[in-house]
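Quick question: what would this complex look like in 3D?
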Amino acid sequence: QVTLRESGPALVKPTQTLTLTCTFSGFSLISNRMCVFWVRQPPGKALEWLARIDWDDDKWYSKSLKTRLTISKDTSKSQVLLTMTNMDPVDTGTYYCARKGPLWNYLDYWGQGIPVTVSS
Amino acid sequence: EMVMTQSPATLSVSPGERATLSCRASQYVSNNLAWYQQKPGQAPRLLIYGASTRATGIPARFSGSGSGTEFSLTISSLQSEDFAVYYCQEYNDWPPITFGQGTRLEIK
């Protein structure tokens, strides 16, 4: 059974750095040659792709957020981390991690999401 | 830059009736198109990938069609649990992946 779960702070102040953790089970990044995405959703708005990390440590970032994002993995803990620097109120929303499908870049399993508010 | 346009923004349909949602890509995406369902307070759920292949466990009343730039998701006989927001997502232009703005399917 594949599961993913996001964890991290619910509230960050403007200019601070956000660090989120995605803990997954039911698959192995390395053995199954899988990839994990981060996607976010502002309140009442659409989904936005942020970053992807591959089993071989290739990393991909949204062009508009590239300078602020870092994605990494800890395969020993079955975790993928995302850091976003210089947080702003417009970054408020729900952040999801999701697994890439076995064939292409659709997202077949999602975490429950973690709501993050940026406010002083 | 790829833009995915979904229509209508809101669709009102009665239970038991058919609903058809549309998604248009600004550039050719072949059949590299997925559909997701999202209920309030929940994560998106994969319904369709490859434009027409149902994901594991998805009921047969959900079907996808289209290729190139025009796609549709049809729900043949709406059940109460189907009222939600639906998103399309292309993955032909990787990177990035691009989502549509969503269609809200509401009870008429």
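Answer marked as accepted. Chain B has a mean pLDDT of 97.
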